[in-house]
Amino acid sequence: MAWIKDRHGRFCWVNRTVLMMQTHDRCESAADAAAAILGKTDHDLAPAFLADQYRRDDEQVLAGIRIVNRIEPFRRPDGTLDWHLTNKIPLFDDSGVVVGTAGIAEWLTTPSIGLVPGPEFAVVLTYMRDHYGSSISNQQLAGLSDMSVRTFERNFQRAFHLTPQKYLRNLRLRIASHALVYTNQSLAQVATGHGFADQSHFTHEFRRHFGRTPGEYRDRFARETSTDVSNTSNAAFAQ
Fold this sequence. Notes:
The protein is an alpha+beta fold. The chain has helices at residues 16-26, 30-37, 42-45, 48-62, 119-131, 138-144, 149-160, 164-182, 187-193, 199-210, 214-228, 234-237, and strands at 2-6, 11-14, 67-75, 81-92, 98-107.
């Protein structure tokens, strides 16, 4: 799935895969599907909490910061989770001014694991995806990569523009945001189930990442999402 947005977050172009998903969901023609997406923003198309995350991504990318090989959850309408690998970059005009963003998301499955930069990182990302609720050390991840800890940390930072632990923390926070919106788990259960030491630690990291406490986030998005999610398309989710 690929897309281009302008500085205001309006979709200017999407690829055939996105159009096919939109058509499948709403039984429209390709032209109707394009008309339903182009010129719209994520807040027109996605559940509120996802649109909020996507806009935060856009603001980061518009500031010139690339999002590189990020694994994240993709929730299907039936409530099951898949995973995809996302990259987002700024787009520049001829004078070097950032005029928009471009992104691509690909399903992260065993056959497509080669999408990750290097087989040593493929197994690392798979391990993070499958064990995010447990304590994971750089020593463990380095061992999976057959590298020394120092070499692993240096190479991971170069490939993903984040340290391994910051990458893992961001993954946990995005998955936890789904739990806050879609489940009735207590804040303490969400915290410990997503790899945080306790609720206090979770609250601190969540507020720093999303600008809201977990409780505020749930109050803001859970009810609105439960109302809106049945009216949104998969295409808008996959960022």
